[in-house]
Amino acid sequence: MTLHMIKLSVGPKDVAELAAIQARRAVADPPLRHQTRMKPKRVAEILDGGSIYWVVAGWLQVRQRILDIREESWDDGSSCAALVLDPELVSVAARATKPFQGWRYLAPEAAPPDLRAGTAAEGLEALPAKLRQELRALGLI
Questions:
Q1: Mind listing the pLDDT tens digit for each residue in 16-25?
Q2: Is residue 35 part of a domain?
Q3: What is the largest CA-CA distance in the chain?
Q4: Do the domain assignments include residue 137?
Q5: How many domains does the chain have?
Q6: Given CB 3.0 to 4.6 Å as the disulfide criterion, which of 44, 49, 50, 97 pairs with 55?
């Protein structure tokens, strides 16, 4: 059974900035991966088609397929887990998400659906990204 993960993207203010950061990382130190202190215990389920869902600026907005999970080391020599990611960011139906630490498992039935390329956005998703971001900052959405 497939299992996903959900993680806050700390730093980027929007999905475009997340994509730019990841593009630089992929070129500087391939393959593209995200390092995390705790290794998931349910690796087989995650590698069975699982994705990491990114919360950017308080909104769960995109996902990436997890291709592999391997053990690596931080610069100080301590161990960590590396989530090897597909570079493609897939837009999903955005939803507000409260902050949390680390990552969490996300069951497939709790995951938001993908937004198909070429489909018209509805509601808040129809607004330009910059406007949505400003409205969120003002606490209006």
A1: 999 999 999 9
A2: yes
A3: 48
A4: no
A5: 1
A6: 97
